[in-house]
Design a protein that fits this description.
The structure is a homodimer of 192-residue chains. Chain A is mainly alpha-helical. Chain A has nine helices and no strands. The first copy, chain A, binds a DNA duplex (18 and 18 nucleotides) through residues 1, 4-5, 8, 29-31, 39-43, 45-47, 50-51.
Chain lengths: 192, 192
DNA sequence: GTCTATAAGCCGATAGAC
DNA sequence: GTCTATCGGCTTATAGAC
């Protein structure tokens, strides 16, 4: 029945999410995913056309989850736009402080697929990052920042740089410094 | 004789450099590297203990090459610190405009090895990024910026964010916006 | 829709010759 | 220091049964 089909597919995506994020896409075999999901490979290939197909679905499923986390930390913080941005970076600091944190899954997947620009997972990564930047631009615009698009891009770049660097150095001081710079740029933009 | 040994080893590293950067570390086989270098696998394993060994040497060899490129664009530009930083971002714009550009090799390698924190290649990536940041801090300090370390880190984060994002979007507008923000932060820091 | 079994090939690494 | 040959295992994906 339909119910069972959906559960199985979601269980496979859940397993892929954990394994892909932990060890990377190419280092994770279909065998390992099927085993973790508790299904055989035959079942796996019933639900997914190929491993590439699963990779794309894995990233697409992460898009709204990550975006909602950003929005939540922003919306929950009361005060001016500088305070709200500070809250966003603080929530990233908290997320990246976990020992299980292994960088940004979108960045890492894009890195692994760098030689396949048309890959659906690459499009999913691009789409997600555009969504984050567009959300920032929308909020900045609503908070009276005239050059909202440019400022949003600058804040976005600081965030991405910190995510990338913290994967390499495992030092949360980078997201803090990124937050300081972001607040500086936003405050500066409000006054113009 | 020693001469021949050195040439062979360098030829293998050259081949690895091209293939690793093009397709990624895990997607590149030792077979493919040996073939491109024009040696057999037996010869490969005479010069390198393992594939992991080669990965580390590949990144270590890139450290000074990249760093010198940064320094050159900075030193060649005459004028104040803002102009020099603008020149650095402009040189990155030029480098990332090539169709063969596939992101930052250090970021991509670190992403693939995210689950192996002690891997020598991860240490090489960390070391390289620290060198870039430390070089910026040194220059900022010499150019009379009081909070040189913090400003250097902010500029570094903008650079890293742009490199990461351009791999995903293939849009050089990001390095331009990063450059604008960097100049803004540096100019602001000079005045304090 | 899920199972067992297996294809066909590529992976990193090694053996022995010279 | 470089060659040919090959190991054992893992890879994505498929075949046929129920």
């Amino acid at each position: 029945m339909k119910q069972a089909k959906t559960n199985t597919k979601e269980r496979i995506i859940d397993a892929a999410n954990k394994l892909f994020y932990l060890a990377g896409i190419r280092a994770t075999s279909v065998d390992a995913i099927a085993e973790k999901a508790g299904v055989t490979k035959r079942t796996f290939y019933y639900h997914f056309q190929s491993k590439d197909d699963l990779i794309a679905e894995y990233l697409s499923a992460r898009d709204q989850i990550n975006l909602k986390a950003f929005k939540a930390s922003f919306d929950e913080q009361k005060g001016d736009i500088a305070k709200k941005i500070r809250a966003v970076f603080k929530s990233v600091l908290k997320a990246t402080s976990h020992t299980k944190w292994r960088g940004c899954g979108f960045q890492r997947t894009a890195g692994e697929l760098a030689n396949k620009p048309g890959h659906p997972a690459m499009k999913a990564a691009s789409s997600h990052k555009k969504n984050v930047e567009a959300w920032l631009a929308k909020e900045f615009n609503q908070h009276g920042i005239t050059n909202a698009a440019a400022t949003a891009r600058q804040v976005f770049l600081l965030l991405e740089g910190a995510l990338s660097t913290m994967l390499i150095h495992h030092d949360t001081a980078y997201i803090e410094e990124a937050g300081h710079a972001a607040v500086l740029l936003v405050t500066n933009a409000v006054q113009h």
